[in-house]
Amino acid sequence: QVQLQESGPGLVKPSETLSLTCTVSGGSISTYYWSWIRQPAGKGLEWIGLIYISGNTSYNPSLKSRITMSLDTSKNQFSLKLSSVTAADTAVYYCARGGGNTRFIYWGQGTLVTVSS
Amino acid sequence: QSALTQPASVSGSPGQSITISCTGTSSDVGGYNYVSWYQQHPGKAPKLMIYEVSYRPSGVSNRFSGSKSGNTASLTISGLQAEDEADYYCSSYTGSNTLLFGGGTKLTVL
Q1: From A94, B36, B61, B77, which residue has the greatest number of CB atoms within 10 Å?
Q2: What is the pLDDT of residues B35-82, one digit of tens each?
Q3: Distance in angstroms (rounded) separating the CA atoms of residues A14 and A17
């Protein structure tokens, strides 16, 4: 059974960079698309971006200028960096397998990131 | 990119059927057969209920079905049960490996 687990700081200061890592177990990261999705409290889901083994990425146009995604096959992990954060970036961040024209079957449990000084 | 349009809330009594709509454009819902539906209970990660418009993953009840007409996709839940009370989100491929979610619909089982 594939499992995903997000990790990273729960508190980030405004204007700084949010960094999260997703560790995948029960399957190789070397296939499929891998995505980040976020959800502000009481609001809907927002797809952030995806990465593929080739290193190819695709990002939400509204966040593209601030996003960097990468993957580490040796650790079976992929990561998200979101720069110049503001309070509007406060949300639960999920990692998931899928994206693009593929479905999200496996999700992490989500991690709350708060942007505050 | 604006979120796909879903009703904010729907409700139904146990045993009844309800339908949740998801309206987009010809650049997303209408242009591709890659619409998915997710169920989310409070404090939990979303769960895939329907993919590629009308396919059910293994383990999902056949009370859940999906369809699409033009730029609008729909999720129908028949024989409503208390456990179906949750938030539901649609998503659609939008080309170039990008994806868009709907704003979400809160289903209340009366």
Answers
A1: B36
A2: 999 999 999 999 999 999 999 999 999 999 999 999 999 999 999 999
A3: 8
